[in-house]
Amino acid sequence: MSSSRISLTRYLVEQQRHDQRIPAQLRLLLEVVARACKHISHAVNKGALGGVLGTAESENVQGEVQKKLDIIANEVLIEANEWGGHLAAMASEEMDTIHIVPNRYPKGEYLLMFDPLDGSSNIDVNVSIGTIFSVFKMPEGDRGVEEQDFLQPGTKQVAAGYCIYGPQTTLVLTVGDGVAMFTLDREMGSFVLTQDDVRIPEDTKEFAVNMSNMRHWDEPVKRYVDECLQGKEGVRGKDFNMRWIASMVADVHRILTRGGVFMYPWDKREPEKAGKLRLLYEANPMSWLIEQAGGAAHNGQQRILDIAPTGLHQRVSVILGSKNEVDRILQYHQEAAQS
Ligand code: P6P
Question: How far apart are CA 56 and CA 67, in angstroms?
């Protein structure tokens, strides 16, 4: 690592020195999560050689068949975070209920939520996947930690980020003072700052949505996508490009890197569900990152970070990315509501 490169540890220490956003326990938490992501990256990179591909013959609380790597990633994060004394409990897409730090270890003041391996359908076809995490503080009080302590709006997050396992392994992080990206230097085994103060362009010509669901969408989303497809002959006056990686981490990383808009909207296939993506450990951390980089994140009715959660695994409709595009989609929702 060249001396000009700043390690994750140095970045966290200097952030704390600069504006006290990263107390020692939170710095330990973030370094432990980063180390766990390195471990997961190593397992993912082995692929077939590590005997970690394929399904685990089990289902998670979502009723989704678990991949072997889903379970491995979940176990790595649990084991890495139990002993440090920085956490009171954890919650995961892969676990029905919260995991309280065992009494044999000291308890800390933070709560950690994660999707240990987002985009699992891409594992066996060697397409980018990632770990998403969100951190809250335990509410005041001397009672034991309970599930309801995790049901805080996204505005209460104290840290959020993801690690994408792609051509590079890159950790993307916010503690409320902008977004920074750290690339894993495999020779040194450490994350190195490769981009600070990430900014999303307010306009874009690129949208990301699973087009196969088009007939199930609500009118405002159909209207927006139709106009994108009409290109420069239509009301938008410009051609658009479409991407859909089916890995939220990869689609969001592209948007943080060059702009764009990502949608996984409510649709009428399962009308009782607000959407496919989960609020606490997918939409909230990604929405904070997007907003911290100058973008916007909404569910069509309200800012995602303002949503008061009612369940650990609740789902939400997600529209996020370049601010002017998200604003346009919201305008179409408002016009539809008034018609
Ligand atoms: P679909 C992955 O399973 C995930 O939760 C997100 O990472 C991704 O954006 C979405 O689901 C893909 O869903 O219906 O296109 O397979």
Answer: 5
Average pLDDT of the segment spanning 199-226: 98
Q: Are 256 and 179 in contact (CB under 8 A)?
A: yes
pLDDT for res 317: 98
Write the pLDDT tens digit of every residue in 61-74.
777 788 889 999 99
* Nearest CA among 161, 174, 159, 184 for reference residue 44: 184
Handedness of CA 324, 326, 331, 332 (dihedral sign): positive
- Residue 242 to residue 260: CA distance in whole angstroms: 9
Name the token pair of 228.
Answer: 């994108």
What residue ranges line ligand 1, CB within 6 angstroms?
A: 118-119, 121, 210, 246-248, 264, 276-277
Coil, strand or helix at 136: strand
CA of 248 to the centre of ligand 1 (A): 6
Spacing, Cα 122 to ligand 1 middle (Å): 9
pLDDT over threshold 50, residue 1: no
Q: pLDDT tens, 132-148?
A: 999 999 998 878 999 99
Count Cβ atoms within 10 A of the Cβ of residue 303 and give its class: 0-12 exposed, 13-18 middle, 19 or more buried. Answer: middle
pTM of this prediction?
A: 0.96
